[in-house]
UniProtKB/TrEMBL annotation:
Residues 59-132 form the Thioesterase domain. This is Thioesterase domain-containing protein. InterPro entries: HotDog_dom_sf, Thioestr_dom. Pfam families: 4HBT. It comes from Novosphingobium indicum. Gene3D superfamilies: Hotdog Thioesterase (3.10.129.10).
């Protein structure tokens, strides 16, 4: 692409933008300062601002926040490969490596395997210094829920 040229609009790009809209429209995501970016097939990045209302009694992010960030990043990385159905998390393993004391955290997700019924994706969390603070692996399966019927998923044409 050169200066002044419009970005390519393909079925994949429409699907990715629609997934970003789906994330933004989910009621749970209105409770967090976060945004999703699909960066390519099988790749996602979610930026979160972790504030004290997410802390446990000892002053760091509660484990539910780690799970939310890791699951979302892996889920959306996997759902880039499925254009017709919403995926469901069937299992998720996570590992905490450092407390999050607040600030900007980036969750990155990457599809690992599977394309038909079950998909596997991994994700990791990076704090403001770029240090990994958590990692996870999830298994996701196709549901009967059509993406096109979900509020927020607004791709007019997906290949």
């Amino acid at each position: 692409m050169t200066d002044g040229e419009a970005p390519e609009v393909s079925g994949a790009n429409l699907h990715w933008r629609a997934l970003e809209g789906l994330y933004a429209s989910a009621p749970i995501n209105h409770k967090f300062r976060s945004s999703l970016e699909i960066v390519g097939e099988g790749l996602s990045r979610i930026t979160f601002l972790i504030e004290p209302d997410c802390f446990h009694a000892a002053g760091a992010a509660h484990g539910t926040i780690y799970f939310k960030m890791l699951d979302d990043a892996a889920f959306y990385a996997a759902n880039t490969l499925v254009t017709d159905r919403f995926l469901l998390t069937t299992s998720f393993n996570l590992h905490f490596s450092k407390p999050i004391k607040g600030g900007r955290v980036v969750a990155e997700g990457r599809w690992v395997s599977g394309r038909r019924r079950v998909l596997v994706a991994e994700s990791w969390l990076l704090d403001e210094e770029g240090e990994e603070v958590g990692r996870g692996t999830g298994t996701f399966m196709r549901s009967r829920i059509a993406l096109s019927g979900l509020p927020g998923y607004t791709a007019s044409k997906v290949s």
